[in-house]
Amino acid sequence: MVMVCYYNHLLTPVGGVRFSITKPSILRAETNNPMASDLSSDRSVFRGVSSSSPIRRRDLVFVVNPRGANGRTGKEWKKLLPYLQSRLGSDCNICESLTSGPSHAIDITREAIREGADAVIAVGGDGTLHEVVNGFFWDGKPVANWNTEAVHSTALGLIPLGTGSDFARTLGWKNDPREAIDRIARGVRSRIDVGVISREGEGSHYFINVADIHLSAKAGFYASRFKKFGNLCYVIGALQAFIGHHNQDLRIKVNEGEWQTLSQVTALCVGNAKYFGGGMKITPNADPQSGSDTGLRADQDRVAKSRETPTKTLNN
Ligand SMILES: Nc1ncnc2c1ncn2[C@@H]1O[C@H](COP(=O)(O)OP(=O)(O)OP(=O)(O)O)[C@@H](O)[C@H]1O
Predict the structure, then answer these.
(1) Which residues pair with 61 in a beta bridge?
(2) Any ligand 1 atom below 6 A from CB of 160
(3) What does the pLDDT look like over 98-156, one tens digit per residue?
(4) CB 89 within 8 A of CB 184
(5) Residue 314 in domain
(6) DSSP 53-107
(7) Ligand 1 binding pocket includes 312 (Cβ within 6 Å)
(8) Distances (CA, A) of 45 to 111, 124, 150
(9) How many helices (H) and strands (E) does the chain have?
(10) Where does the secretion signal sit in this chain (predicted)?
(11) Contacts for 299-303: CB closer than 8 Å, 24+ residues apart
C-alpha cells in the first residue's frame, strides 16, 4: 500500500528563481529492504509462476548503475551475482537492468512498477536511489500497475554501492552488498518517509535523503566530477562551490504554514535522513522512519548551523 501524506514545504527565493518545496509524502515499505510502496502488479515482463499457483515467485528488478562509485558498482555487481542467485534465485525471478545514463533509472522503475514488479531495488549510490524513488511517482501521483486487479504492491529496495551511500548510513547499514542481499532474503520490511520538493512553476522532485539548495547543492554537483577520489570528492566539490558563491534570500513555506523569508541563505537543507556529502551529519534529528517531519531542518546562514523549521505531526 502506499500512503501518501503530503506536507508542503515550499521554498521560494525572494526576487529570484522561485522554488517550491513540498515535503514528505510517505512510502510504506512492504518488502525486503526498508522502503516500499504499493503499486500493483501484472507480470508480462517479469514473469513468475501463474497467479493460480499457491506460491508465487516474487519479481525483483535490480536497477544497477554500472558507473556508480567511479565504476566500482558495476564491478562489484558482477561479482555479487552468484551470491544473489544463490540467496534469492529459488524464490524470486531476478531481473537486472543496467542504467545507460542519468535519469534512466527513473524510466526503468516506472516500467517495472507498471509491469507489476514486487520490488525495485536500487544498486548504486544515493543518486541512483534518488532516481529510483522518483520512478515511483509520475505527474505528482504514485505510479500504478497496469493490472488494476493486482493485489500486491511494489517495494523499494537498496543495495548501497555508491561513493557516499549516505542514506544507508542513517539506517545503520554498511556498504556491504551481501548484507543487503541477506536483508532482502529475510524479507525485512519498514516504512519510509519520502519528501517532495518543487520549484515553483516546475514539477516535483521526491527525495528520500536530504534535499538541499544553494551552496551545498552546488558542492554536490561539483563533487560528481571527482568521484574517482572517493569521499574526498565532496571536500573538493565544497571548495569549488565556495568560489564565487553569494548568499541569497529565500522565501519558504513549510507544510501548511505561512510563507517566510530567510535572508542571505548560504545553504538550505531539508533532511528526511541524517547524512549527506559522504558522511556529514547535516540533519541529525531527521528520521526517515518517523512518519513525520520532526527533525526537519532548514539551514540558514551556514550549512553547519542548522535552524529548525516548524514541525508538524503527520496525520497517518
Ligand atoms: N551508465 C551511466 N553512465 C554515467 N552516469 C550514469 C549512468 N547511469 C547512471 N548514471 C548517473 O550516475 C549518477 C551517480 O550514481 P550513483 O549515485 O549510483 O553513484 P555515486 O555518485 O558514486 O554514489 P553517491 O551518490 O552515493 O555518492 C546517478 O545519479 C545517475 O544520474
Answers:
(1) 95, 120
(2) no
(3) 999 999 999 999 999 999 999 999 999 999 999 999 999 998 899 999 998 888 889 99
(4) no
(5) no
(6) SSSPPEEEEEEE-TTGGGGHHHHHHHHHHHHHHHHHTTTEEEEEEE--STTHHHH
(7) no
(8) 9, 23, 15
(9) 7, 18
(10) none
(11) 299/212, 299/266, 299/267, 299/268, 299/269, 300/262, 300/265, 300/266, 300/268, 301/264, 301/265, 301/266, 302/266, 302/267, 303/215, 303/216, 303/266, 303/267, 303/269
Ligand 1: atom nearest CA of 233 is 27
Confidence (pTM): 0.81
Residues 73, 162: contact at Cβ < 8 Å? yes
Mean pLDDT, the chain, rounded, equals 79
> Is 84 inside any structural domain?
yes
- 183-242: pLDDT as tens digits: 999 988 889 999 998 777 778 899 999 999 999 999 999 999 999 999 999 999 999 999
Looking at ligand 1, which residue's alpha carbon is closest to its atom 30?
Answer: 102
Q: Is residue 294 predicted with pLDDT exceeding 90? A: no
Cα–Cα dist 184/139, whole Å: 30
CA 47 remoteness from chain centre: 26
Joined grid coordinates for residue 113: 512498477
Q: Whose CA is nearest to atom 13 of ligand 1?
A: 127
Is the shortest distance between the CB of 66 and ligand 1 below 6 Å?
yes
- Does one domain contain both 179 and 212? no
Q: How many of the other CB atoms lie within 10 Å of CB of 226?
A: 17
Same structural domain, 108 and 125: yes
289 burial level (CB within 10 Å; 0-12, 13-18, 19+): middle
User: Quick one: 64 and 151 in the same domain?
Assistant: yes
Full residue range of the structural domain in which residue 235 is found: 9-22+197-308
Give the three cell numbers for residue 75: 564491478
Contacts of 93 (CB under 8 A, 6+ apart): 46, 47, 48, 57, 58, 59, 60
